[in-house]
């Protein structure tokens, strides 16, 4: 081998330059009207040529100035990625090239962070990178499942499948939030109203009661004492509540043991725990079916599913299933060993393995448990309404009775 060939073999490939840049331009149309706009192109001459093709007389064309302090805008969330996947699938199915579709979506984005991310993806794809490789630069927005599915089949079909999957997951999350946040929100409002009564209304009644010169009933005195305690210590109670909440959130994010404990407690709550179980099983089945159908090997698919169930308990169970399958266990036997999947799910997985239709069986399991979540949430909402009314009646109604009880006694004495 010659010295030149050796040097070429050992040399590192030159970094790929960004093929497209953002330009701002002004032009005059056929009516003499001045028009302004933006365009992504390799150079300013490309922009001028494109403007002339459109029948405009180009004026100033210059690179778009970059922001001084980075990208502003809100964080790109799961809902944004779901809309992006659906829009990409629709445009690509209509015959729009991927680079052009990315540019259209980037120009239509109101969130600067998301727009800049889409422009970077457009530049990478136009420079020759595969779409799945370009997505690896954004692991927080496009998780391993998303990247693996795109890698298994890049095109409108896989993006349409991904969009449908993400839409179902978002709908499922919305059901869970509805089940948890509705009663919590109503009770929080009741608690705030009770605190307002304790701190502002009861002290006014206390002044009136002192003018009577009579001994207050025990029930009323209990609320008066609670009001005095709140007025004297509200500052320390607020600090303790904020510090306790901050410490819990910090420990929950950093400690797997705390996450496991909280998750186990939530799964044991009547009705709510059942909904969380059904949601985790549905997400497990749909994610595994989707990855397995895309041609991902079962062990690798299980590795992807671990982390997609929305439950620490089910994530750990999925990793144990993956380890058992890797050493030769059948999937249904490995699921049976962890002891958290219902017998019906294990049996349907076993039938799917024997018949060679594992993905279709898992899809049926996912649909069944998604329907169960919908029914359970509706039942929980109906069950919680009388409970919430009773709790609010005790919180607020108890205070009202306590405040008017001395007045009733005074009226009877007169």
List the helices and strands and how they pair.
Elements: H1 3-10, E1 21-28, E2 34-41, H2 44-53, E3 57-63, H3 78-93, H4 98-107, H5 112-126, H6 131-135, H7 144-152, H8 156-212, H9 218-254, H10 256-268, H11 272-293, H12 298-305, H13 312-326, H14 331-338, H15 343-355, H16 358-413
Antiparallel strand pairs: 1-2, 1-3
Task: Supply the key terms.
Receptor-associated Protein; mainly alpha; single chain; flat; three-stranded antiparallel beta sheet; 414 residues; 3 strands; disordered N terminus
Would you mind describing this structure in some detail?
This protein has 414 residues and is mainly alpha-helical. The protein has helices spanning 3-10, 44-53, 78-93, 98-107, 112-126, 131-135, 144-152, 156-212, 218-254, 256-268, 272-293, 298-305, 312-326, 331-338, 343-355, 358-413, and strands spanning 21-28, 34-41, 57-63.
């Amino acid at each position: 081998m010659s010295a030149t060939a050796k040097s070429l073999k050992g040399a590192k490939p030159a970094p790929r330059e960004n093929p497209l840049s953002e330009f701002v331009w002004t032009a005059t149309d056929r009516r003499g009207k001045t028009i302004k706009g933006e365009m992504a192109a390799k150079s300013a001459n490309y922009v001028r040529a494109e403007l002339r093709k459109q029948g405009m007389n180009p004026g100033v064309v210059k690179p778009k100035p970059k922001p001084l302090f980075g990208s502003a805008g809100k964080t790109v969330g799961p809902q944004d990625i779901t809309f992006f996947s659906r829009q990409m699938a629709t445009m690509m199915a209509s015959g729009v090239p991927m680079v052009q579709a990315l540019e259209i979506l980037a120009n239509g984005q109101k969130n600067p962070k998301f727009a800049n991310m889409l422009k970077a993806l457009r530049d990478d794809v136009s420079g020759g990178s595969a779409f799945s490789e370009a997505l690896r630069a954004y692991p927080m927005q496009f998780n391993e499942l998303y990247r693996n599915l795109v890698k298994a089949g890049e095109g409108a079909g896989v993006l349409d499948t991904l969009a449908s999957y993400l839409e179902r997951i978002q709908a499922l999350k919305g059901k869970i939030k509805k089940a948890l946040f509705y009663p919590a929100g109503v009770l929080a409002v009741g608690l705030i109203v009770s605190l307002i009564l304790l701190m502002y209304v009861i002290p006014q009644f206390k002044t009136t009661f002192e003018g009577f010169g009579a001994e207050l009933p025990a029930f009323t005195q209990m609320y008066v004492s609670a009001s005095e305690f709140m007025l004297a210590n509200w500052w320390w109670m607020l600090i303790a509540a904020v510090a306790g909440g901050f410490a819990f959130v910090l420990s929950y994010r950093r400690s797997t043991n705390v996450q496991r404990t909280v998750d186990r407690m939530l799964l044991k709550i009547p009705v709510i725990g059942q909904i969380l179980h059904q949601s985790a099983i549905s997400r497990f089945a749909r994610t595994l079916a989707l990855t397995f159908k895309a041609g991902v090997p079962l062990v690798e698919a299980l590795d992807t599913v671990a982390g997609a169930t929305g439950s620490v308990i089910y994530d750990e169970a999925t990793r144990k299933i993956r380890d058992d399958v890797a050493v030769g266990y059948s999937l249904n036997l490995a699921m049976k060993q962890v002891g958290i999947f219902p017998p019906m799910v294990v049996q349907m997985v076993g039938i799917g393995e024997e018949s060679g239709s594992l993905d279709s069986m898992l899809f049926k399991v996912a649909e069944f448990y998604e329907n169960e979540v919908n029914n359970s949430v509706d039942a929980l909402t109906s069950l919680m309404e009388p409970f919430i009314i009773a709790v609010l009646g005790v919180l607020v109604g108890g205070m009202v009775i306590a405040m008017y009880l001395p007045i009733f006694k005074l009226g009877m004495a007169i």
